[in-house]
Amino acid sequence: MIEAYKRLWPDRQGIQRITTQEELENSILVELNDELTHPRVRKSVEEKLALATERIGQSNLTNHEKNALLQLYKKLAAH
Q1: Residue-wise over 9-29: b if at least 16 C-beta within 10 A, else e?
Q2: Once rounded to an integer, what is the mean pLDDT over residues 32-37?
Q3: CB–CB of 25/72 below 8 Å?
Q4: Calpha distance 2→79 (Å, rounded)
Q5: What is the 3-state secondary structure (H, E, C) of the chain?
Q6: How far apart are CA 42 and CA 39, in angstroms?
Q7: HSE-up of 3 (CA within 13 Å, CB side)?
Q8: CB 27, CB 5: distance < 8 Å
Q9: What does the alpha-carbon distance between residue 70 and residue 61 come to, in Å, rounded to a whole number?
């Protein structure tokens, strides 16, 4: 799943250094919490999940990779 995530975000800084499931989950949590955006313009977890879902759906990943990533995003968004 790490390689699928790297292909989903090829130009995002720091993504290519992810090597463990924990690092992958931390990166997704940072994305879902919009932590790299100024607090006044941050989007909600629901908005970020919707954007990620759309990007995953439109990607060139296999259906298995898409489903696995979507499940991981949803699991992490629920926490």
Answers
A1: beeeeebeebeeeeebbebbe
A2: 95
A3: yes
A4: 20
A5: CHHHHHHHCCCCCCHHHCCCHHHHHHHHHHHHCCCCCCHHHCCCHHHHHHHHHHHHHHCCCCHHHHHHHHHHHHHHHCC
A6: 5
A7: 4
A8: yes
A9: 12
Among 79, 26, 68, 32, which Cα is nearest to 51's?
32
| Amino acid at site 48 | K
Structure tokens at 75: 């699991």
Q: Is the pLDDT of residue 27 over 90?
A: yes
pTM of the predicted model, to two decimals? Answer: 0.91
Per-residue pLDDT reduced to its tens digit, 37-72: 999 999 999 999 999 999 999 999 999 999 999 999
